Amino acid sequence: MIDLFPPFDPGRRGIRRRHQLRIRRLPMRLILPNLVTLFALCSGLTAVRMALENRYDLAILAVVFAAVLDGLDGRVARMLKSTSRFGAELDSLTDFVNFGVAPGVLLYCWTLRDLHSIGWIVVLVFSIAAALRLARFNVALDDVGRPAWQANFFTGVPSPAGAICALLPINLGLLGVIEPGRETAIVVAFYTVAMGLLMVSQLPTFSGKKLGKRVRRDLVLPLFVCVVLVGALFVSYPFEMFTLGSVIYLAFLPAGAIWWRRLAAADEASHKPASPEEQPAAPPPAA
Length: 287
What we know:
Blueprint: H1 12-20, H2 28-52, H3 56-79, H4 85-110, H5 117-140, E1 153-155, H6 159-166, H7 168-174, H8 182-200, E2 204-206, H9 220-236, H10 238-251, H11 253-271
Helix pairs in contact: 2-3, 2-4, 3-4, 3-6, 4-5, 4-6, 5-8, 6-8, 7-10, 9-10
């Protein structure tokens, strides 16, 4: 009779192989950044649920919380020296759900569904733009030949900022500035497509990666006061602060492009070969 379930590792050779395949114990520092990323994914999926239940205030808070965790997981990984290819792939998939799918669902449930198929096409455009932006970002990580000053910039609006800015109409609706409806849906549709185009554009935007690594001693106490003040404002007036932050970010997008051009011109001038008039004269031949 044929044994349908033969024993695994029946002999000494199998025992040795079993010891070789034994799962190694991983230190907690390698797992912690991935846990932060998974918490961010849970927050983004919760935002989708809140949108389906028409609880848009909690949905926006969930997306913003996912953006905060997205900014932390990479820093935690670098701080603990636990960066990995698995963590990078997980982070990209999480960002697509949190900042590509969730904002689109929120906008569709809030007002874009009044446009029926057109509104859903707008959601698809925004989500695809977020996916393309993340794919381009992952490819750019392999480019090691870029100048050091370019690390201060992203190409296009980053997906977390694009998602939060895309939710600006819902913030305005929660503040009573606008009302959802067909006329509002038409404006929101154009605005959502514009945010998607900004994410996949070549517009240089300030990244802030190197911001806050060093703080002057005389600015420590004022920095504490400003952080507490901003935190208190966000707790007391969250949607007013989200609206103000989105408007300020969009208004300062041209400043990033101008700064990029200045740095690029300075870098090009530093690597430009000197003209014959500027080159030093050759020393006279030795006697």
